[in-house]
Amino acid sequence: MELRSSVYAYWHLMKLCFPHPRDKTGAGASIINFASEAGVMGDSLYAPYAAAKEAVRGLSRVVAREWGQYNIRVNTVCPNGMTENVSGGLQYLNPELRDHVEKAFVNNPFGRAGDPYEDVAPVVVFLASDDSHWITGQNIHADGGVLINA
């Protein structure tokens, strides 16, 4: 199920949309896919989800290389923000998983959960804008520093 609702869905949607942004003039077109730190970090209890999101990252890198000739850039974002839906659904998780999720959202140098609208959305807007015309095949962690690496 995870692969169908994630990597396969991304691939089919990109193929369906491909004719529209192909050869767009100027800065070109931008595709932004969503991945997850669960895959990057290999989080326990998330095997199917992590595998599917890593497949999205891999697919996005390949498509960035292949579609660059058409002036299409493809990037992924690993967001870390807690919506009302996430916080409201925590009560339904088993205690071990709930504790893991709660800690994951505040395990960053800022010590708080990110706000999807204030903290993550501006990164997505930047990647969608012409200002990001020289960025492709990248994975951006909009996570408040959860995953700091070189």
CATH superfamily: NAD(P)-binding Rossmann-like Domain
Could you give a short account of the major beta sheet? Answer: 3 strands, parallel
CATH class category label = Alpha Beta
Calculate the terminal CA-CA distance, rounded to whole Å. 33 Å
**Can you tell me the CATH topology?**
Rossmann fold
H and E string: HHEHHEHHHE
Task: Bin the helical content.
Answer: 40-55%
Assess the beta-strand content as a share of residues: 5-15%
Specify the number of helices: 7
What is the number of strand segments?
3
Shape verdict: globular
Summed up, the domain count is 1
Poorly predicted runs are: none
Radius of gyration: 16 Å
Structural class: alpha/beta
Any idea what the CATH architecture is? 3-Layer(aba) Sandwich
Which strand order does the major sheet show? 1-2-3
Mean pLDDT: 90
Question: Which descriptors would you attach to this protein?
Answer:
alpha/beta, globular, 48% helix, 3-stranded parallel beta sheet, 150 residues, Rossmann fold
